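Internal QA ticket QA-208
Title: Verify multi-chain structure generation after dependency bump
Assignee: T.L.

Test input:
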Amino acid sequence: MLILAEVTNVAIIGKGLMIGGGLIGPALGIGLVGASYMQAVGRNPEASKFLGQALVFIAIIELMALLAFASIFIVK
Amino acid sequence: MFGLLALSTPPIHITSAYLFKIGPLLITNSIFYGWICSIIMCTLFIWVARRVTVHPQGGLVQFIEAGVEFIRNLVESSFEDKERSYKYVPYFVTLFFFLLMSNWLGLIPGVGESFLKGENPLFRAFTGDLNATLAVGIITMGYVYASSIRESGAKEYFGHFFIGSPLNPLYLVLGILEMFTDATRVISLSLRLFLNVTIGEIIIAVFSYLGGIVAPLTAAPFTLMELFICALQAFIFVILSVMYLAITVNHSTEEHLTDEDITETINGDAKMATS
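Actual output:
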C-alpha cells in the first residue's frame, strides 16, 4: 500500500505568511512617507530640512516590520 | 563545494545567555559586555572632556563636540522657551552617546560568535537584550514624566488627559484610555531599539552563513548598513523622548497666557490697524 501523504511541518507555511503579510504593510507605509516627502520637496525645496522628522516616522512604521520578523522565531 | 565549509544552520541567538553567578544574581553575557562598554565609554569621554579647548584642535575631540552640539540644538529647537531647555540638555546628550556607543561596540568583530563559553557567546551587544533597553526606556520615561509634572504641576498634568470634566463617565473612560496609551511609550521605545539591534545581528549572521567561504564579502554591506541604522536608532530614541517632554512643557507655557494678555494684543493690533 502506498503512503501518498507525507507529514510536513506546516509551521513553515505560517512563517512564510507571517513574513509576507507582516512586511508588505510597513513597506507600503515607508513608501508613502518617502513619496510624500519627495513631493513636498518638489513643491517647496525649503521642506528638505524635515528629513529628520520623516526618518522618525519611518522608524515608527519600521517597528511593525520588526515585530513581524521577530515573531517568526516563536513559531516552531 | 563551498557549501561543505558552511555550518549546517546559521548561528542565531535571540536572547542573551547566562554566563556565571555572583551570589543569587545570574550574570548574562549582555550585561557582562555592558560593563566592559561602560568602562570603555567612561575612559574615552573623560579623556575627551580633559582635551576640550576654546580653539578647535581636530581629531576625535571635534567629532564628539559636534555630536554634543547637534543634540543641544535638537533639544533647544524643540522647546519654545529656550531658557527652560538648558537643564534638560545634559541628560539627553548622555543618553545619545550611551546608546550610540553601546550599539556600535556591539558590532565590532569579536562580539558574538567569535568567543564561546560552552555553547553561548561570551560577549553580546548591550542593547541586544530586552532587559537593557527596557531599563533605559523606564529611566528615560520616568525622567520625562517627573519633569512634565514638575513643569506644569500635578493637577494640570493629569488634567490634560481629560477633554472635559472627569465626572462625566465618557470623558473619564477616554481619559484613562489616554493614560494607558501614554504608558505604552516605554514599551514601544525599548522594543524598537532592541529589535533593531537583534535583527541586525541575525541578518549579519544569515548573510555570513550564505556566503560560506566568502562570508566577509557578503556580510560587509549589511554591517555597514547596521552602522547607519544603529546611529539612527540612537538618534530616534533621543528625539522621541525629547518630543514627549517638549509637548507637555510647551503646553504648560501656553497656559500662562491669560485672557487679558490675548485681549490686549488683539486691541493693540486693532489700534495699529486703525491709526
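Spot checks passed. Chain A touches chain B at residues 52, 55-56, 59, 62-63, 66-67, 69-70, 73 (CB under 8 Å).
Status: verified.
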